[in-house]
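Thread: Newbie trying to understand structure tokens

Hi all, I'm a second-year student working on a class project, and my supervisor (Dr. K.) asked me to get a predicted structure for one chain before our next meeting. I've only ever worked with sequences, so writing a 3D structure as a token string is new to me. If someone could post the tokens and maybe explain what I'm looking at, I'd be very grateful. Here's the chain:
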Amino acid sequence: MNIKFYKYHGTGNDFIIIDDRNKFFDHTNFKLIASLCKRSTGVGADGLILLRSHDKFDFEMLYFNSNGYESTLCGNGARCIVSLANKLGIIKFNTVFQAIDGAHNAKITNNVVSIQMNDVFSIEKNNNMCVLNTGSPHYVKLVDDIDNFDVYNNGRQLRNSTEFAGDGINVNFAQIKSNVLHVRTYERGVEAETLSCGTGVVASAISVHRLSLIKNNVIDVKTMGGNLSVSFENNKQYYQNIWLSGPAIFVYSGII
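---
Reply by user tm_fold:
Sure, no problem. This is what the structure looks like when written as tokens:
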């Protein structure tokens, strides 16, 4: 079988996306998905995304980590699939699509792709850290000298700790420098640091606001792979109208 794929990245967070509206791709074949994502012998990606038809919304997004297994929401991946849906003529510049955590609004404005995240009601905080779910579970910790911080070993230790045993958790390390939030993320399922993590960026932005370190409701974020923006409304009880915005870049297409 020949499989056409599209390679995209959102601030360095890269994905294989397949137009699977005819449902020809075996999404239960985790070994195949993992082999496609493997950088040394496959296409190479942080994850694989299937674009499928939906009877109520413009399309449906199925996301798989590079280990081959279906996972929770991927924010950068969602922005990339919106860009591909536009490229394929499925949508124009506004859309509503289905993901694993429900329906999401999205829009494309001057090559910036923005998605609306679900409301965040519960945030566990303690000194310089927060735990919250922004479509995927995240641990956020404030650190000094983020550029030289050992993200891999510290992230792996927290991700595999007994406190987060079972499904695990994504681990973000953050630092505010000149009113810009710098974020580095160790992602579960990838089991390494990625150049960017959309849901992690959102979790980090909300965390620094919840910890009263930044008072603005529009936060510029710098990741290892590029710049993103997070906006939200806060009524002191929960966070709503949350938007993640940034570039979603088509790299190339090919046949496997």
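A couple of things are worth pointing out once you decode it. The helical segments are 30-37, 75-87, 151-159, 198-210. The domain at 123-247 is CATH 3.10.310.10 (Diaminopimelate Epimerase; Chain A, domain 1). Feel free to ask follow-ups in this thread.
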